[in-house]
Amino acid sequence: MDRFAWAVEKGNEGLWDWDLQTGRIHFSPRWRALLGGEGSCGNTPEEWFGRIPPGEREAVRSAVDARLGEDCAKFELEHRMLHADGSCRRMSCVGVITRDPAGRAVRIAGAHADITAAGAVDPLTGLANRPFFLDRVARSLESSRRNPDFVFALLLLAVDRQDAPGSPPEAGGELAVAAARRLETRMKTGYRKASSGRDHALAHAGAGEFLVLLEGLGGADEAQAVADRLVGEMAEPFRIGDREIFAAVGAGIAVSASGYGNAQDMVRDADTALHRARSLGGGRAEFFDTAALDAARRERALESDLRRALGTGELRVAYQPIVDLESCRTAGFEALLRWRHPERGEVSPAEFIPVAERTGLIVPMGLGVLREACRQVKAWRHGLPQCGDLWVSVNLSPVQFKGERLVREVGDILRAEEYESGSLVLEITESGMMENNQAAVRLLMQLRVMGVRVAIDDFGTGYSSLSHLCRFPLDYLKIDHSFVRGIETGKEALEVVRTVSELAGRLGLGVIAEGIETPGQLGRVRSRGCRVGPAGLCSRPVAGARAPALLDG
Ligand code: C2E
Ligand code: MG
Ligand code: MG
To answer: Is the pTM above the cut of 0.70?
Structure first.
């Protein structure tokens, strides 16, 4: 609560202590002074609630009651109060609830702070103003960056007066004031804290446009539902004095899931969406980017399917042969995850791996691949005499690199499967290493100490520098297949392959060229000094059961 902190700093806050069993509430002298009172005042809640403008009083009372009934320890509210000088002050209120062992609220210790002068209030409506609101959105963006599950939306709601022919012009923004009051009440009752992190904020952006922040959403479609409801509620006629005033209402929505860098961009997109809502005829709420909403929905569906798939046989490991280009024998395999979705059929790893990474599912999935690959390759090594030195390469996601658990978990699997650590290669992409620079070096060192080898995957597509290559403990560079694909036609691609091979040789690293598909590519890669390369030429990744056939030769 920045405004509260501001008020405390300025000495603008007064304390109270409310014994809920006796109903008595003690107000500090500073609390009384804040509202222009002197000496003592009564000790009933009426001293507080009686000073709230009548239109707002019940909403505040029921918001407090609701918090007492919920299982929460603290609440924060904003409401207006009448000062002894007749002015209306904007107050921020925090309360800390004490509960008995049965969970019943017995006492609240709290404070009110006068935030009217915080430079945050729109003088016409008494709502927050635009700069203050943008600060608040910036903090929400910060939270969503730290926690991707924290989704929030920004609505820009336009309430445009629709004058009947011949009606008198509006005086003093009375529609904006009435709309502000209605918006406040509807949000207070209609967007309750169902869980922690769920909150809202309002501001008047000027000219009958309101900004609404919805925090702690379950997803983008919940923002649509709230916006649709608000548009309907705000379109009901307003009674101002003895007149009934109608308004045309529309809303634009921007959601944090689109990865905004700053609050202004979000408001800009909500404005674009509002423009579309208006041009489509009003009375509606539009998303800035419906494609983004669809993508968010698809991703959620994919996530829940993936969770379910973890416990079924839908996820399998396929084996991509890695062929020694000198002997033309299969030297090892890269284990690659495959997902056969019951309705959609095969889903590409390029689609489901990023979802698994965002949701953390990649951690159990990655360990599952490692376990399965060790088991399978060990069986081949034992069962096929010509495969005694076969190795397996398993992809590691940057997400798996984030914790300290990785080394222990790899060690546990190697021990449980009785798999020799020297016959395991772990692949990590350049960007994965760069993201967690220090931690990555430490983890790779520990893996190397265990005897595991390390490859840098998709080399040439990320940002690697020579200093990184020297510093990271590595065994192989895998040249990305985009270069291999181009070597028959493009001179540059051929040069990249040649340079990387030479560089690797000087650093004492092996080279693996990904995705060799044609004899021409094979010849050229071989002439550039790559010793091993996945033989797309001989075979695309195959199911475990079919792999031994590739080992016979
Ligand atoms: P990657 O690790 O670079 O894997 C190589 C990709 O190139 C695989 O695609 C493989 O099927 C494909 N490939 C190999 N040889 C050829 C070829 O000759 N021609 C063509 N056109 N493609 C070839 P895939 O299986 O679709 O995997 C894509 C990416 O998904 C992988 O790239 C890897 O980053 C990720 N991935 C797959 N399985 C796992 C896994 O178990 N864990 C993690 N963390 N990532 C995985
Ligand atoms: Mg790989
Ligand atoms: Mg690769």
So the answer is: no
